[in-house]
Amino acid sequence: MTDRPNYISPAGFATLLAEHRQLFEVERPTVVETVSWAAGNGDRSENGDYLYGRKHLREIDRRLAWLGKRMKAAKVVDPAQQADRSRAFFGATLVIADEDDRQRTLTLVGDDEADAGNGKVGWNSPIARALRGAGVGDLRRVELPGGVIEYEILSIGYPAA
């Protein structure tokens, strides 16, 4: 973990919470029941249900621990409550254009919510760091593994309050 705050939207936090509840209240008890049943069947060294169940239980516990840490470190920020809507901050949806005038629409979201294929970029990604605080008409340079790209911010939007 880093010292950076784990910004997340209310919907993103609800998703983490729902996954935690599903694992803790549904999946884990089911696996524990299966492991308990398999343990009563005798030799555990060749018991696939027991061995697989124990492995699956460790995976669930590891995921629960990770989710717990992420939720504990989370700082829920509602983009609809953003006071300064003229600048790119957490939750902003930006339309940007590169040097070849190709436009992209990006939404700055928490790292746990990032989905580049759907235009949601994590708050700590290189492109999000470069765009933070930008206003319409600003030019921002982004250092990517393939080289430096300059983007112009065409519009900034936030969800309705």
Automatic annotation (TrEMBL):
Pfam families given in the database record: GreA_GreB, GreA_GreB_N
UniProt entry keywords in alphabetical sequence: DNA-binding, Elongation factor, Protein biosynthesis, Transcription, Transcription regulation
GO MF annotation list: translation elongation factor activity
InterPro entries: GreA/GreB_C_sf (IPR036953), TF_GreA/GreB_CS (IPR018151), Tscrpt_elong_fac_GreA/B (IPR028624), Tscrpt_elong_fac_GreA/B_C (IPR001437), Tscrpt_elong_fac_GreA/B_fam (IPR023459), Tscrpt_elong_fac_GreA/B_N (IPR022691), Tscrpt_elong_fac_GreA/B_N_sf (IPR036805), Tscrpt_elong_fac_GreB (IPR006358)
Keyword set includes Protein biosynthesis: yes
Transcription elongation factor GreA/GreB N-terminal domain boundaries: 6-76
Residues annotated as domain Transcription elongation factor GreA/GreB C-terminal: 86-158
Known role: Necessary for efficient RNA polymerase transcription elongation past template-encoded arresting sites. The arresting sites in DNA have the property of trapping a certain fraction of elongating RNA polymerases that pass through, resulting in locked ternary complexes. Cleavage of the nascent transcript by cleavage factors such as GreA or GreB allows the resumption of elongation from the new 3'terminus. GreB releases sequences of up to 9 nucleotides in length.
Membership in a protein family: Belongs to the GreA/GreB family. GreB subfamily.
UniProt-recorded name of the protein: Transcription elongation factor GreB
Organism: Sphingoaurantiacus capsulatus
Gene name linked to the record: greB
